[in-house]
Write a structure and sequence with these properties.
heterodimer; A: 448 residues; alpha/beta; Rossmann fold; GMP Synthetase, Chain A, domain 3; six-stranded mixed sheet; 28% helix; B: 88 residues; mainly alpha; Non-ribosomal Peptide Synthetase Peptidyl Carrier Protein, Chain A; globular
Chain lengths: 448, 88
């Protein structure tokens, strides 16, 4: 059975991660993993919700050694966790020290630290071992599982590293603003550093001032793994950042102008990754060089009868691309937009049809529709919703909706109307909803 | 309903405008939770709000500030933190 090492080229006392209280060497990491692996419950699946990227990684690696599957929920919303735990009833949760996960039996990660002997051999993991499940919103509203093998995760890490010119021994530190439970976060902020012998920063700086202070505290090269949202916040805030060697952005398209500003601000190159939970990272581009995406080595985008498919040796079957794309003779592609029904809010993809269904299931709602306005000057463009629900207030509907959908998709605002502009056949065209939104926004003077 | 101070009124307005909430700023309870059950704000809102506060008041919030959860817990605590740290 072909296999691959659990971590890349580290010497025993190389720093593998930075925790708030100091460095963790490769030696300490392997000892932390071995100790935790011994104490994990004998269950097939684990919801790893550790806040610290290092503790998450120790939990992930320990679960792999115990042949347990790590479940990566798309959000920490209690209803999402309960739904996933319902689908995997033998799961337990890995939580931060002194925390519990509501409704799920959980174990808190307690690392003993201290000096540890270097094991004779670094553990090896079979390439075909399924190690993680990334969830996406399915068309029925149930989270859809996407199985990730060790082979897929390591192949993407190596292909991304070679594309970006990352060499083992660079000893750069990877700082990420994205959650490690997100597919891009797992690939770029966990797998990429540990497969290349880099240093993984355990924190997750959110505000521009945090990002700056984390970067400023580091010595050596810095790599920032982030999103257009955080980049826009950093650029808008106008504070000075220490130079970084590379910025890697994903989860939503980055505009050419923001990429240019970010390159100037951070004295660096801004590269983007295109990917989605079903396939993982697929292609890369330096945003200011143009709109063409270059597939990672080993990835091909091939047309079948109805859609474009991602092919890679590590994918058990080809995966359809959720966006409308055109592919040139060299295999590079341009993205023209999402398939009609798909929207993306702050890196979370969902079908509008599914959200509309959730809305209509709410008691008292007679008709309703979600709408994605054109992107404006805000950091994130939020969904709107128009609802017909006589006798209900928009607050009541919001409250009911909140228990059924991921918080990021909550409509801002939700507007109650006496009817929706359906045509004679009962259809609601995108144009008429768009006109409704335009009228409403104008009436509000774009304010509250 | 408790009375809002002048600065609380301004910040309530900033929250509602920045986050496009469909509520009257005057009806925000000064001690009610902003995140979770209260106004139901999330971490993207926190980022947008932090940016707006930095631009309007020159106060740069830090998520690794041990007090951050307390600061963001209600309109009143947020206003107090801005009052103490504002540079404009």
């Amino acid at each position: 059975m072909p296999d691959a090492l659990l971590i890349g080229p580290y010497r025993p006392d190389d720093v593998l991660a930075w925790e708030p209280d100091g460095p963790r060497t490769a030696r300490q990491f392997l000892s932390d993993v071995a100790q935790l692996a011994e104490s994990l419950p004998d269950r097939p699946t684990v919801l790893n919700l550790a806040t610290s990227r290092y503790e998450f990684l120790v939990g992930f690696a320990a679960a792999i050694l115990r042949c347990q599957l790590t479940l990566l929920p798309q959000s920490r919303a209690p209803q999402t966790l309960r739904r996933i735990a319902g689908d995997y009833p033998d799961s337990y949760g890995l939580a931060d020290r002194d925390e519990t996960i509501e409704g799920i039996e959980s174990v808190s990660i307690q690392l003993r630290g201290g000096q540890a002997p270097w094991p004779g051999e670094i553990p090896r993991v079979p390439l075909n071992q399924v190690v993680a499940v990334a969830f996406t919103s399915g068309s029925t509203g149930q989270p859809m599982p996407n199985m990730k093998t060790w082979g897929a995760l390591t192949a993407v890490a190596h292909a991304t590293g070679s594309r970006l010119g990352i060499k083992g021994g660079d000893r750069a530190t990877v700082v990420a603003t994205v959650p490690h439970q997100h597919m891009f976060g797992l690939e770029a902020s966990v797998m990429l550093p540990i497969m290349h012998g880099l240093v993984m920063h355990a924190g997750r700086p959110l505000f521009p001032a945090d990002i700056r202070s984390v970067l400023a505290d580091l010595t050596g090269q810095r790599i920032l793994v982030t999103t257009p949202l955080h980049l826009r916040a950093c650029v808008t805030e106008g504070v000075r950042f220490p130079p970084v060697a590379l910025i890697l952005s994903a989860t939503a398209p980055l505009s050419h102008s923001l990429a240019k500003e970010a390159e100037r601000h951070f004295h660096t190159e801004v590269h983007e990754i295109f990917g989605f939970a079903e396939a993982g990272s697929v292609a890369e581009r330096r945003t200011i060089d143009g709109d063409r995406w270059r597939p990672l080595d080993g990835v091909r985008v091939v047309q079948d009868q109805t859609s474009w498919m991602v092919h890679a040796e590590y994918l058990p079957a080809p995966v359809p691309v959720p966006d409308r794309i055109t592919v040139d003779a060299q295999g590079m592609f341009v993205i023209h937009g999402r398939e009609a029904d798909q929207v993306n809010v702050a890196g979370h993809r969902v079908s509008l049809g599914e959200l509309n269904q959730k809305l209509l299931e709410i008691d008292g709602v007679q008709d309703g529709v979600f709408f994605m306005p054109e992107e404006g000057a805000d950091l994130v463009t939020r969904l709107m919703a128009f609802v017909v629900a006589p006798g209900k207030t928009s607050e009541e509907i919001q409250r009911a909706l909140r228990t059924h959908i991921d918080p990021v998709f909550m409509p801002r605002p939700l507007i109650c109307l006496s009817s929706l502009p359906r045509n004679a056949t009962g259809k609601l065209s995108r144009e008429s909803v768009s006109e409704l939104a335009r009228q409403w926004l104008e009436g509000q003077g774009h304010g509250a | 309903m408790s009375e809002l101070s002048l600065l609380e009124q301004d910040i309530a307005k900033l929250i509602v405008e920045t986050l496009k909430l469909k509520v009257d700023p005057a009806t925000i309870q000064p001690v009610a939770a902003l995140f979770g059950d209260g106004l139901g704000l999330d971490s993207i809102d926190a980022l947008e709000l932090a940016l707006a506060i930095s631009q309007s008041y020159g106060y740069q919030l830090r998520s690794n500030d041990p007090e951050i959860n307390a600061i963001f817990s209600s309109l009143r605590t947020l206003t107090k933190a801005i009052e103490k740290n504002r540079t404009k």
